[in-house]
Design a protein that fits this description.
- This protein is α+β, with helices and mostly antiparallel strands.
- It has one domain: H-NOX domain.
- It contains 6 helices and 7 strands; from the N terminus they run βααβαααβββαββ.
- Helix 1 crosses helix 4 and helix 5 crosses helix 6.
């Protein structure tokens, strides 16, 4: 987790957390058990949960089940989380990730964020300096870009840059996105 991120007083909206359960549809009981081990025994869309507990559950999911499941959790987030209205392009959607992130978190503290930079026609760089697992962010960025990709785009490509990685102790992960 980045040193500058302080999560003790932060809460996460239940709707966003429900993405984990939805992504683990082949083993929802296991997901619920993992959340219960971290103090979250009932998930409700409009309730708020301690970020530390959610992060603990996500770390357990990644360790016990694997990074592909965490990527699936990230891919499932846009189905449940609150996003700003009026988005119609990949660029708008990726730019909105930081706003959406803040719409689904509350409390005092630095929670990092999602930082968009255009790098060319149909290309962008997303810098993620939040406390979530990198496979989750990779899945989230990919799903948001896919949701808003133009009809003439054949694919969305999200590549994790190798120079920086929060799992190695860096402050951020950087993803190159093309569509």
């Amino acid at each position: 987790m980045p040193q500058s991120v302080h999560t003790a007083l932060i809460e996460v909206l239940g709707n966003a957390v429900l993405s984990a359960i939805g992504a683990m549809r082949i083993a929802p009981d296991r997901a619920l058990r993992i959340f219960a081990e971290h103090g979250i025994t009932q998930l409700e869309k409009t309730a708020w949960y301690p970020l530390e507990s959610v992060l603990g559950a996500y770390r357990s999911i990644q360790k016990q089940i694997g990074p592909n499941t965490m990527r699936a959790v990230g891919r499932n987030i846009p189905k449940n989380a609150e996003f700003p209205p009026g988005l119609s392009t990949v660029e708008q959607a990726l730019r909105s990730l930081d706003t959406a992130y803040r719409m689904n978190h509350r409390g005092a503290g630095n929670i990092g964020g999602y930082h968009f930079e255009s790098t060319g026609a149909r290309r962008a760089r997303m810098t993620c300096d939040n406390p979530y697992p990198c496979p989750m962010d990779e899945g989230l960025v990919e799903a948001v870009a896919e949701r808003f990709k133009p009809q003439d785009a054949f694919f969305i490509r999200v590549q994790h840059e190798t120079e920086l990685c929060r799992e190695r102790g860096d402050a951020a992960c950087v993803y190159n996105v093309s569509w």
